[in-house]
Design goal:
By secondary structure, this protein is α/β, with parallel strands linked by helices. It is built from 11 helices and 9 strands. Helix 7 (about 160-175) links the parallel strand 5 and strand 6. Helix 10 packs parallel to helix 11 (about 275-285). The longest helix is centred in the middle third of the chain and has 17 residues, at about 160-175. Residues about 1-15 have low confidence and may be disordered.
Protein backbone atom coordinates (compact mmCIF):
# COMPACT_ATOMS: atom_id res chain seq x y z
CA UNK A 1 0.00 0.00 0.00
CA UNK A 2 1.39 3.40 -0.99
CA UNK A 3 1.74 6.33 1.40
CA UNK A 4 -1.01 8.18 -0.50
CA UNK A 5 -3.48 5.30 -0.27
CA UNK A 6 -2.71 4.85 3.45
CA UNK A 7 -3.37 8.52 4.00
CA UNK A 8 -6.70 8.25 2.18
CA UNK A 9 -7.57 5.18 4.24
CA UNK A 10 -6.83 6.78 7.58
CA UNK A 11 -8.25 10.22 6.73
CA UNK A 12 -11.66 8.61 6.30
CA UNK A 13 -11.53 7.39 9.90
CA UNK A 14 -12.31 10.26 12.28
CA UNK A 15 -10.87 10.23 15.81
CA UNK A 16 -13.34 8.53 18.13
CA UNK A 17 -13.00 11.07 20.93
CA UNK A 18 -11.86 14.64 21.39
CA UNK A 19 -8.56 15.22 23.15
CA UNK A 20 -9.31 14.69 26.85
CA UNK A 21 -8.68 17.39 29.40
CA UNK A 22 -5.75 15.56 30.99
CA UNK A 23 -3.71 15.75 27.77
CA UNK A 24 -2.01 19.11 28.25
CA UNK A 25 1.50 19.32 26.78
CA UNK A 26 3.80 21.82 28.46
CA UNK A 27 4.84 24.74 26.25
CA UNK A 28 8.01 25.50 28.19
CA UNK A 29 9.96 28.74 28.35
CA UNK A 30 10.13 30.42 24.96
CA UNK A 31 13.68 31.68 25.42
CA UNK A 32 15.08 28.22 26.16
CA UNK A 33 12.98 26.65 23.41
CA UNK A 34 14.39 29.11 20.89
CA UNK A 35 17.94 28.43 22.12
CA UNK A 36 17.71 24.70 21.47
CA UNK A 37 15.92 25.16 18.17
CA UNK A 38 18.65 27.61 17.17
CA UNK A 39 21.40 25.08 17.87
CA UNK A 40 19.52 22.34 16.01
CA UNK A 41 19.18 24.65 13.01
CA UNK A 42 22.78 25.91 13.25
CA UNK A 43 24.24 22.41 13.12
CA UNK A 44 21.71 21.13 10.57
CA UNK A 45 20.51 18.34 12.86
CA UNK A 46 17.41 16.22 13.02
CA UNK A 47 15.62 15.51 16.29
CA UNK A 48 12.82 13.06 16.92
CA UNK A 49 11.29 15.87 18.97
CA UNK A 50 10.53 17.78 15.75
CA UNK A 51 10.33 14.99 13.19
CA UNK A 52 7.98 12.99 15.41
CA UNK A 53 6.07 16.05 16.67
CA UNK A 54 6.56 14.96 20.26
CA UNK A 55 4.03 16.64 22.58
CA UNK A 56 6.78 17.22 25.17
CA UNK A 57 9.26 19.02 22.96
CA UNK A 58 8.46 22.40 24.46
CA UNK A 59 9.12 21.14 27.99
CA UNK A 60 12.27 19.26 26.99
CA UNK A 61 13.69 22.16 25.00
CA UNK A 62 13.04 24.46 27.94
CA UNK A 63 15.04 22.04 30.09
CA UNK A 64 17.86 22.11 27.53
CA UNK A 65 17.41 18.55 26.28
CA UNK A 66 16.71 16.90 22.94
CA UNK A 67 16.75 13.43 21.39
CA UNK A 68 18.92 13.39 18.29
CA UNK A 69 17.84 11.53 15.16
CA UNK A 70 20.67 9.85 13.27
CA UNK A 71 20.83 8.83 9.63
CA UNK A 72 18.81 11.68 8.15
CA UNK A 73 15.09 12.38 8.33
CA UNK A 74 13.72 9.76 5.92
CA UNK A 75 12.87 6.28 7.21
CA UNK A 76 12.82 3.08 5.14
CA UNK A 77 9.92 1.72 7.22
CA UNK A 78 6.31 2.93 6.99
CA UNK A 79 4.91 2.64 10.51
CA UNK A 80 1.36 3.99 10.60
CA UNK A 81 1.78 5.89 13.88
CA UNK A 82 4.96 7.82 13.09
CA UNK A 83 5.30 11.35 11.71
CA UNK A 84 8.83 10.82 10.35
CA UNK A 85 8.96 10.95 6.55
CA UNK A 86 9.05 7.60 4.73
CA UNK A 87 10.80 6.73 1.49
CA UNK A 88 14.28 6.15 0.06
CA UNK A 89 16.98 7.97 2.05
CA UNK A 90 19.99 9.59 0.45
CA UNK A 91 22.64 6.89 0.20
CA UNK A 92 25.39 9.47 0.64
CA UNK A 93 25.79 9.24 4.40
CA UNK A 94 26.56 12.50 6.19
CA UNK A 95 29.59 11.38 8.17
CA UNK A 96 30.02 14.83 9.71
CA UNK A 97 26.63 14.58 11.39
CA UNK A 98 28.22 12.93 14.44
CA UNK A 99 30.60 15.85 14.98
CA UNK A 100 27.80 18.38 14.67
CA UNK A 101 25.69 16.51 17.20
CA UNK A 102 28.65 16.38 19.59
CA UNK A 103 29.15 20.14 19.27
CA UNK A 104 25.47 20.80 19.91
CA UNK A 105 25.48 18.50 22.96
CA UNK A 106 28.54 20.32 24.32
CA UNK A 107 27.01 23.77 23.81
CA UNK A 108 23.75 22.66 25.43
CA UNK A 109 25.67 21.45 28.47
CA UNK A 110 23.94 18.08 28.49
CA UNK A 111 24.86 15.35 30.92
CA UNK A 112 22.47 12.75 29.49
CA UNK A 113 21.90 12.25 25.76
CA UNK A 114 19.48 10.02 23.88
CA UNK A 115 20.44 8.94 20.36
CA UNK A 116 17.87 7.38 18.06
CA UNK A 117 17.66 6.93 14.31
CA UNK A 118 15.40 6.36 11.37
CA UNK A 119 15.38 2.77 10.12
CA UNK A 120 18.10 2.42 7.48
CA UNK A 121 17.40 -0.97 5.94
CA UNK A 122 19.23 0.28 2.85
CA UNK A 123 22.60 0.25 4.64
CA UNK A 124 24.65 -2.91 5.12
CA UNK A 125 24.91 -2.32 8.89
CA UNK A 126 21.43 -0.76 9.14
CA UNK A 127 22.96 2.32 10.71
CA UNK A 128 24.73 0.65 13.66
CA UNK A 129 27.97 2.50 12.88
CA UNK A 130 26.16 5.85 13.05
CA UNK A 131 25.40 5.24 16.73
CA UNK A 132 28.99 4.23 17.43
CA UNK A 133 30.55 7.20 15.66
CA UNK A 134 28.23 9.68 17.36
CA UNK A 135 28.98 8.26 20.81
CA UNK A 136 32.69 8.49 20.06
CA UNK A 137 32.47 12.12 18.96
CA UNK A 138 30.42 13.14 22.00
CA UNK A 139 32.94 11.54 24.35
CA UNK A 140 35.81 13.36 22.66
CA UNK A 141 34.34 16.56 24.07
CA UNK A 142 33.13 15.20 27.40
CA UNK A 143 33.74 11.71 28.75
CA UNK A 144 31.26 12.24 31.60
CA UNK A 145 28.16 12.40 29.39
CA UNK A 146 25.84 9.40 29.70
CA UNK A 147 24.43 8.19 26.39
CA UNK A 148 21.29 6.12 25.88
CA UNK A 149 20.58 4.56 22.49
CA UNK A 150 17.12 3.91 21.06
CA UNK A 151 17.67 1.72 18.02
CA UNK A 152 15.65 0.10 15.23
CA UNK A 153 15.55 -3.70 15.16
CA UNK A 154 18.62 -4.10 12.88
CA UNK A 155 16.79 -6.93 11.08
CA UNK A 156 17.36 -8.01 7.50
CA UNK A 157 19.99 -8.70 4.90
CA UNK A 158 20.20 -12.41 5.60
CA UNK A 159 19.70 -15.21 3.09
CA UNK A 160 17.47 -17.00 5.60
CA UNK A 161 16.12 -16.55 9.12
CA UNK A 162 19.25 -17.87 10.83
CA UNK A 163 21.46 -15.59 8.76
CA UNK A 164 19.22 -12.61 9.55
CA UNK A 165 19.40 -13.37 13.28
CA UNK A 166 23.20 -13.50 13.09
CA UNK A 167 23.29 -10.21 11.19
CA UNK A 168 21.01 -8.63 13.76
CA UNK A 169 23.30 -9.73 16.59
CA UNK A 170 26.40 -8.46 14.77
CA UNK A 171 24.89 -4.99 14.37
CA UNK A 172 23.64 -5.02 17.94
CA UNK A 173 27.07 -6.06 19.26
CA UNK A 174 28.70 -3.19 17.38
CA UNK A 175 26.48 -0.71 19.23
CA UNK A 176 26.87 -2.40 22.61
CA UNK A 177 30.67 -2.35 22.32
CA UNK A 178 30.43 1.45 22.36
CA UNK A 179 29.02 1.11 25.91
CA UNK A 180 25.83 3.16 26.06
CA UNK A 181 24.42 3.46 29.58
CA UNK A 182 21.09 2.05 28.40
CA UNK A 183 19.91 0.09 25.35
CA UNK A 184 16.38 1.00 24.30
CA UNK A 185 14.19 -0.63 21.67
CA UNK A 186 10.44 -0.07 21.64
CA UNK A 187 7.82 -2.75 21.11
CA UNK A 188 5.38 0.15 20.57
CA UNK A 189 2.20 -1.95 20.85
CA UNK A 190 0.77 -5.37 21.73
CA UNK A 191 1.37 -8.41 19.55
CA UNK A 192 -2.07 -8.41 17.87
CA UNK A 193 -1.63 -4.86 16.54
CA UNK A 194 1.99 -5.11 15.39
CA UNK A 195 1.27 -5.70 11.70
CA UNK A 196 -0.95 -2.64 11.35
CA UNK A 197 1.10 -0.33 13.55
CA UNK A 198 4.75 -1.32 12.90
CA UNK A 199 5.07 -2.23 9.24
CA UNK A 200 8.39 -3.94 8.56
CA UNK A 201 8.90 -4.97 12.20
CA UNK A 202 7.58 -7.88 14.22
CA UNK A 203 6.91 -8.59 17.88
CA UNK A 204 9.17 -11.65 17.93
CA UNK A 205 12.13 -9.88 16.30
CA UNK A 206 11.95 -7.00 18.76
CA UNK A 207 11.78 -9.30 21.76
CA UNK A 208 14.69 -11.23 20.28
CA UNK A 209 16.75 -8.05 20.00
CA UNK A 210 16.11 -7.13 23.64
CA UNK A 211 16.94 -10.67 24.73
CA UNK A 212 20.17 -10.64 22.73
CA UNK A 213 21.17 -7.31 24.25
CA UNK A 214 20.96 -8.79 27.75
CA UNK A 215 22.94 -11.86 26.67
CA UNK A 216 25.67 -9.91 24.88
CA UNK A 217 26.07 -7.10 27.42
CA UNK A 218 24.54 -8.06 30.79
CA UNK A 219 25.91 -4.90 32.42
CA UNK A 220 23.90 -2.61 30.13
CA UNK A 221 20.24 -2.28 31.15
CA UNK A 222 17.56 -2.68 28.51
CA UNK A 223 14.46 -0.55 28.07
CA UNK A 224 11.29 -0.66 25.99
CA UNK A 225 8.11 1.32 25.60
CA UNK A 226 4.47 1.01 24.56
CA UNK A 227 2.00 3.48 23.09
CA UNK A 228 -1.44 2.86 24.52
CA UNK A 229 -4.74 3.72 22.88
CA UNK A 230 -4.41 1.84 19.59
CA UNK A 231 -7.14 -0.66 20.44
CA UNK A 232 -5.34 -2.93 22.90
CA UNK A 233 -7.05 -4.44 25.95
CA UNK A 234 -5.84 -4.37 29.55
CA UNK A 235 -5.16 -8.08 29.34
CA UNK A 236 -3.01 -7.60 26.23
CA UNK A 237 -1.01 -4.84 27.92
CA UNK A 238 -0.24 -7.06 30.91
CA UNK A 239 0.70 -9.95 28.59
CA UNK A 240 3.10 -7.65 26.74
CA UNK A 241 4.71 -6.57 30.00
CA UNK A 242 5.12 -10.24 30.93
CA UNK A 243 6.77 -10.90 27.56
CA UNK A 244 9.19 -8.02 28.11
CA UNK A 245 10.15 -9.35 31.51
CA UNK A 246 10.63 -12.83 30.00
CA UNK A 247 13.60 -11.37 28.07
CA UNK A 248 14.78 -9.50 31.19
CA UNK A 249 13.83 -6.02 30.00
CA UNK A 250 14.41 -3.79 33.02
CA UNK A 251 13.15 -0.29 32.22
CA UNK A 252 9.70 0.56 30.87
CA UNK A 253 7.83 3.56 29.46
CA UNK A 254 4.07 3.68 28.92
CA UNK A 255 2.38 6.62 27.20
CA UNK A 256 -0.78 7.58 25.35
CA UNK A 257 -0.69 7.46 21.56
CA UNK A 258 -1.61 10.81 20.02
CA UNK A 259 -2.45 10.93 16.32
CA UNK A 260 0.04 13.24 14.54
CA UNK A 261 -2.32 13.93 11.63
CA UNK A 262 -5.32 12.55 9.74
CA UNK A 263 -2.83 10.60 7.60
CA UNK A 264 -1.98 8.39 10.59
CA UNK A 265 -3.71 5.58 12.40
CA UNK A 266 -6.53 6.93 14.61
CA UNK A 267 -6.67 6.83 18.39
CA UNK A 268 -9.02 4.03 19.46
CA UNK A 269 -9.12 4.96 23.15
CA UNK A 270 -7.73 7.51 25.59
CA UNK A 271 -6.57 5.78 28.75
CA UNK A 272 -7.07 7.85 31.89
CA UNK A 273 -4.22 8.86 34.24
CA UNK A 274 -5.48 6.37 36.83
CA UNK A 275 -5.06 3.57 34.28
CA UNK A 276 -1.40 4.46 33.84
CA UNK A 277 -0.97 4.22 37.61
CA UNK A 278 -2.50 0.74 37.56
CA UNK A 279 -0.27 -0.40 34.70
CA UNK A 280 2.80 0.95 36.50
CA UNK A 281 1.80 -1.00 39.60
CA UNK A 282 1.43 -4.19 37.57
CA UNK A 283 4.81 -3.57 35.94
CA UNK A 284 6.43 -3.15 39.33
CA UNK A 285 4.99 -6.47 40.46
CA UNK A 286 6.49 -8.12 37.40
CA UNK A 287 9.95 -6.87 38.37
CA UNK A 288 10.70 -3.84 36.17
CA UNK A 289 13.37 -1.75 37.90
CA UNK A 290 12.33 1.64 36.48
CA UNK A 291 8.89 2.59 35.20
CA UNK A 292 7.74 5.85 33.67
CA UNK A 293 4.00 5.70 33.01
CA UNK A 294 1.61 8.52 32.12
CA UNK A 295 -0.40 9.98 29.22
CA UNK A 296 2.43 12.20 27.96
CA UNK A 297 5.32 9.83 28.68
CA UNK A 298 7.50 9.00 25.70
CA UNK A 299 10.49 6.64 25.41
CA UNK A 300 13.06 9.41 25.91
CA UNK A 301 10.97 11.68 28.15
CA UNK A 302 12.89 12.33 31.41
CA UNK A 303 15.19 9.49 30.34
CA UNK A 304 17.97 10.67 32.64
CA UNK A 305 15.71 10.10 35.67
CA UNK A 306 15.46 6.43 34.78
Amino acid sequence: MTTQSRQSQFSRIPPKERLPKWIKPSIGRVSELEKVQGLVKKYRLNTICEEGRCPNRGECYAAGTATFLLGGSICTRSCSFCQVDKGSPNKNIDYLEAERIANAVFQMGLRYVVLTSVARDDLSDHGASLFCKTMKEIRKLNTEIDIEVLTPDFWGGGANKTHSINKQRERLMEVLRAKPVCFNHNLETVERLQKEVRRGATYTRSLGLLKAARELAPNIPTKSGLMLGLGETKEEIIKTLEDLRSVDCQYLTLGQYLRPSLAHIPVAHYWEPKDFVVFASEAKKLGFKRINSGPLVRSSYHAEES
